[in-house]
Amino acid sequence: MSNSEYREIKLRDGRTLAFAEYGSSNGQPIIHCHGAPSSRVEGDLILDAATLDELGLRVIVPDRPGIGRSDFQPGRRIIDWPNDVLELAAALQLDRFIVVGESGGAPYAAACGALIPTRVRAIGLIAGVAPFDAPGVLAALSGPLKLMFRLARSARPILRGLFRLNLSAIRGGGERGSEQMAASFPEPDRSLMRQPEIRGRFIACFEEACQQGTEGPAWDMGLIARPWRFDLTKISVPALLWQGERDGNVPAVHGRYLASTIPNCRATFYPEEAHFSLPLNRQREILSALAAVSA
User: Fold this and answer.
1) Whether pTM exceeds 0.85
2) Cis, bond preceding 37 (omega within 30 deg of 0)
3) pLDDT, greater one: 82 or 180
4) For domain 5-294, which CATH number applies: 3.40.50.1820, 3.90.45.10, 2.60.120.20, 3.40.50.2000?
């Protein structure tokens, strides 16, 4: 696992954009779009410092607006995110870079591939969600996740309240609560979540997402559940996709839709991996493929 360096910049409209950096400071740059609800500390969960150094990679994980330490952006849309990425790249003096999206971060990475292709070398999608208006995508979700996204789309105050209840349960649940949480996942995620260090870093992603309250994460979920407002078929940069067939959070039908819709998409499906095991167990393969694109 890796520990991050926390930084922030001021955007042109006055907002603060917070981010964490991992790996080699002069390495090939990757901008990582965290999941939902998650935050910049996702890198502490999924990135290994030695692997990043060995491959010569610099991974930057920004908090999206209203999440973690980044200021809320009223009325924001997924298609506004590439502008924030361009300002972040300018502040860090990055010319071209890869954009990776994990889980609920996939729409944001895809938007960068579609809308700022001259700056994006490639996009990487790890267990990424597909548009909810695509055939079979919403239906494939588990009952609790289906409910969560429906609330995000049409009853955000209720979802905000549910997130607050989740925070209370996490903080007061103790060992029994931790075991119940782990038991709710399919293998191999269940075994990973029974490891205290991994479970603690997973929980930290959600706790930091709610640093300013639950409106930012709830807004983020709502954007994912609604039309994304850009065309996946217009992505012209190389796309790499990884999906676990045992994924209980983002079922494989999502990955298959993205792989069949995005041009130039090189997809890898793993029969034995699930949602969290995919980036943890296959990190070297994923990062090596991204490093090869960067070369």
Assistant:
1) yes
2) yes
3) 82
4) 3.40.50.1820
